[in-house]
Amino acid sequence: MAVIRATEKDVxxxxxxxxxxxxxxxxxxxxxxxxxxxxxxxxDCLDFINIRTVQQMVFQxxxxxEATTKPYFYQRxxxxxxxxxxxxxxxxxxxxxxxxxxxxxxxxxxxxxxFNQWNTGRFKAHCFFTPSTTDCPRL
Length: 139
What we know:
Strand order of the largest sheet: 1-4-3-2
Number of strands: 4
Shape: globular
Number of helices: 4
Mean pLDDT: 94
Low-confidence stretches: none
């Protein structure tokens, strides 16, 4: 059962986002990036209030993804990336991004907090951050 509504265009956009944000970190890195994206659509809180669709999430301004400004984001979605995107739309989650709304690539170690959100772990170059249930009660 889908945890968010998504058209075929949404699935392809999410697949392109995952690839553009994290292809260099392999399949799990792409899965983690997709996890964060779907969480932003699911949880109506903080910077993502009124974000209800994949298109709104990907192209949110300010607060969207840097990858959308790069030409490689606009490449056609590959079948394997589409298959990964469908896993999140169906509700699959992966640590450390299960409930994360943010990730970024620091120059050094992951900070314990980033904009008052707690670090939930690192995968390769990216650190993941999850809000408290006080800040985001639907988590």
